[in-house]
């Protein structure tokens, strides 16, 4: 990785997660109250974890002991994925190549 590319390397705290439609409209798949981290390393790998801050804990207190409804809510309000990345200096963007993640479809893109 070139020296000028090192500015993206590090641990980044999520401040917002929005998807912009073709018409410019923003949607917030995890709501507006989100938290998360993206870790980008010098070898070209990344990992990202995002979640809705309002995601309720399981009533049982056991992270593997949620009811079907609690498990569904937890799954729908968390996104985790990893892979490699490239920088497009012309456009000023990072292109993430997802290799795997929480949702099965993420590792098939």
Write the layout of secondary structure elements.
Elements lengths: L9 E4 L5 E2 L5 E2 L6 E7 L4 E8 L15 H9 L1 E11 L4 E9 L8
Antiparallel strand pairs: 1-4, 2-3, 4-5, 5-6, 6-7
Strand content: 35-45%
> Number of helical runs?
1
Helix content: under 10%
- Count the domains: 1
Low-confidence stretches: none
| Average residue pLDDT | 88
Tags for this model:
mainly beta; five-stranded antiparallel sheet; 1 helix; 39% strand
Structure description:
The chain is mainly beta. The chain has one domain (3-108). It has one helix and seven strands, in the order E-E-E-E-E-H-E-E. It has one helix at 68-76; strands at 10-13, 19-20, 26-27, 34-40, 45-52, 78-88, 93-101. The strands form two sheets. A five-stranded antiparallel β-sheet has the order 1-4-5-6-7. Strands 2-3 form a two-stranded antiparallel ribbon. The longest helix is centred in the middle third of the chain and has 9 residues, at 68-76. The chain is globular and about 50 Å long. The two termini are 24 Å apart. The mean pLDDT is 88.
Question: In brief, what are we looking at here?
Answer:
With 109 residues, the protein is mainly β. The protein has one helix at 68-76, and strands at 10-13, 19-20, 26-27, 34-40, 45-52, 78-88, 93-101.
């Amino acid at each position: 990785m070139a020296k000028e590319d090192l500015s993206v390397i590090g641990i980044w705290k999520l401040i917002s997660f929005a998807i912009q439609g073709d018409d410019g409209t923003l949607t917030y798949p995890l709501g507006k109250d989100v938290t998360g981290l993206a870790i980008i390393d010098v070898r070209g790998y990344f990992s990202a974890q995002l979640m809705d801050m309002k995601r309720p804990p399981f009533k049982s207190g056991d992270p593997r002991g949620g009811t079907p409804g609690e498990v569904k809510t937890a799954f729908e309000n968390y996104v985790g994925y990893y892979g490699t990345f490239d920088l497009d200096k012309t456009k000023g963007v990072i292109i993430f190549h997802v290799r795997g993640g929480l949702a099965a479809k993420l590792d098939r893109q």
